[in-house]
Amino acid sequence: MVKIHRLFAVLLLLPILGWCQSHPFFNPGSFLSLGAAEGRTASVAAADLDGDGDLDVVTAEGRHWPAANHIFYNVGNGVFRTSRVVDAEWSSCYAAELGDLDGDGDIDIVTGNDRHPNIWYQNNGNGIFERVGSVGGEATPTRNVGLSDLDGDGDLDVLFTNRGAPNEIAVNDGRGNFNNILPFGNQDDATIDIVAADMNNDGKLDLVLANRNKQQNYVYFQGATFEFTKKIPFGTGADETRSVAVADFDQDGILDIATGNLIGSNVIYFGGANGFVRSLVYEENDYATASVKTSDLNNDGFIDIVNGNGEEVNYAYINQGGKSFKKIPLNEERKMDTYDIHLADINGDGFVDILEANSGDLNIYYFNSFGRMK
């Protein structure tokens, strides 16, 4: 507990400005409150929505139940003073991703909804958003959204993972039109998470899938004609994987895969000539992990891991030279139902901070204090 007190200052996202409480990791001089404790937050994302140079936050709300998604505007140094709903029309949202979908230089929003249309919202340039229309299937059970330039034409395409329905790639024409929808997978897939990355160093983005229901996890390699038919497995073949993250943890020039499993231990599968065979258990406990995110938290050149868990303490795992990981609790006094983790420099100090999306509890973010320890 003493170590984490020195590493992170905790900020609580609450409904009333000015709230504070006695908290072991709380810095009373550095937070304002936002959000609502009773919300069913499923994901959180950060980007400069209003063009003022700092990172704003979007929360996706509801999961299976209709709710309003929210934008929180950063006024500098990680202080949030104003908020608004993304859309007056509620939806059962699982994910929101941020990126320039129409190529006009500002950041737009796309949401992934459970059995509601997935929607994209256009930024007017000042952080105010207008609903443009639906993307992909009309009533798919979407669980996650990804943005990547999959076809290499310079714009962002949209990936939807659909639990119990084919996953979808919505191909962008460069102006924010998504008329070309390419399904992949099948009706039985229980895909929860997806990452696009070049897993075989051929210059094209491939797809790394996390599947639930004890289904096999796969890497789908992009072919010469923008198809994803060749695949190789990773994991045990019977995992309950909720989240994946991709990084070169051992710095050998080949990307590796970190898994977050709802049941059992969490594992890194190292990339190599024979696929993703060599592995390292970085968390042996069963924490019902729902989210895995990676970044260099302490600026030592090695990629670290942060996990969001279900009704358990959340942890950061500091990479020890690519051979092991040092486990640090974020907040030992709170066991929350964390659905998502997002890593971003919220206060602009050059160190990556940690944001949690918690369902039925406070959303929390932690200021990274590694830099002040040097």
Q: How would you describe this protein?
A:
The strands form 6 sheets. Strands 1, 22, 23, 24, 25, 26, 27 and 28 form an 8-stranded antiparallel sheet that branches. A 4-stranded antiparallel sheet has the order 2-3-4-5, with no helix packed on it. It contains 1 helix and 28 strands. It has a domain of 152 residues: YVTN repeat-like/Quinoprotein amine dehydrogenase (Methylamine Dehydrogenase, Chain H, 7 Propeller). It has 374 residues and is an all-beta fold.
Largest sheet: 8 strands, antiparallel
Classified in CATH, the superfamily of the domain at 38-189 is: YVTN repeat-like/Quinoprotein amine dehydrogenase
Task: Give the strand tally.
Answer: 28
| CATH class placement of the domain at 38-189 | Mainly Beta
Q: End-to-end distance, in Å?
A: 19 Å
Level-2 CATH architecture of the domain at 38-189: 7 Propeller
Mean pLDDT reading? 89
CA radius of gyration is: 19 Å
**What is the assembly state of the chains in this entry?**
single chain
Low-confidence stretches: 1-7, 9-33
Q: Could you spell the SSE succession in H and E letters?
A: HEEEEEEEEEEEEEEEEEEEEEEEEEEEE
Number of helices: 1
Helix content: under 10%
CATH topology of the domain at 38-189: Methylamine Dehydrogenase, Chain H
What is the SS-derived class?
A: mainly beta
